Amino acid sequence: MARVLTPRAEDFPRWYQDLIAKAKLADNGPVRGTMVIRPAGYAIWERMQAEMDARIKAAGAENAYFPLFIPESYLKREAEHVEGFSPELAVVTHGGGKQLAEPVVVRPTSETVIGEFMAKWIDSYRDLPLLLNQWANVVRWELRPRIFLRTSEFLWQEGHTAHATREDARGYARQILHDAYEDLMVNVLGIPVVVGLKTARERFAGATATYTCEGMMGDGKALQLGTSHELGQNFAKAFDISYSSKEGGREHAWTTSWGTSTRMLGGLIMAHGDDNGLRVPPKVAPIQAYVMIVKDGEGVGEAAAKLRDALRDAGVRVALDDRTDTAFGRRAVDAELRGYPVRVEVGPRDLAAGNAVVVRRTDGSKAPTPVADVVGAVLAALEADQRALHDQALEFRRSRTVEVSTLAEAIEAAATGWAMVPWSAVGAPGEAEANGQGVTVRCLLRADGSVPDSEDEPDLVAILARAY
Fold it and tell me: CB–CB of 328/294 below 8 Å?
């Protein structure tokens, strides 16, 4: 295999940028901080989107769409919210050749505009819970952009819900956290995530609690892959989201919001990629099996097409590469770069022996396989490699996570991975000290690994790490 990427161990950020460019996943947009997602990258995002959308709908939420432009006055109604987002806002002051009477903000998130319409649509307890989700783009002006990880414009889903009680709101925020986010990240993306509570310092602006899914990347750093927020009654009071209770009184609703974005694609690259390129978990791969004609020969094209059709009939997402006018080695390198889980190579010599060669991206193995057995071999490989990628990532995380007892030890350990330290040994002052050295508290856990309700609970464990 010719070297086409900077080795990860030599320069991980350079490897990441090389892979995105060489695998034709994305490119920088014309405005600093924006990105163009190319077809190969967007196809993976579409698979993620479909899987996530199914889980969100299974949780009872319905898709809607809200405006890109939000009156500036809306954001100012919730003081903590506007303060948290002010440095990142893109504000439009002119339109149609004239100065606008009121500036409008390009949405950084939609709690305020959706809150306005929740107040309009909710009248009685019978209208609750109101469970909404939208797939959209948002803009947060980014000073240090990196494709998929931090861009000024990115794609995401954002869910917004209103409930009659705090308990119902908390239960739903946790349901999305576990049944939609954690399930997709672990069982589809193959990324073992730690699910926990954000500290007050790291909490979403205007929320009363933020829950997070944190994944370890291939250099030992953390990546926040999705968050779910309890908003209490903060936005309900700011936007008068209220309802008539069963008892006849007027009550403010309890709201939540939650989101995942194209950052998951960056996480997929960094959690599973190797020095040869992407390794895409089969469940999210747009192309699961790539049938390749090695070179022309009698019956080769027909055999390859039959294998493609048989794989498609078996439910495999499959593509056929019959570009014999391009060198096979170059095509094989491109297939490795793009991370197709399985390649089925069909050439005259193997076919004469009744075989095709099944190549697995995860471990690089190549197995001559009777043509009649190829479909079964591919299905088995897809199932095994979905599990293998998760298990490899989990073992890597375990090898790079240490338990320590002091803040100083945690900061030192964060140079190469994650540190687990008693939260009582850190606290708010220690968190500020760690932040000054580029280390953050990623989340808090109970001793048994479950998600706490509050950072004030006793005997909590903090995970400290450097992060993207």
Answer: yes
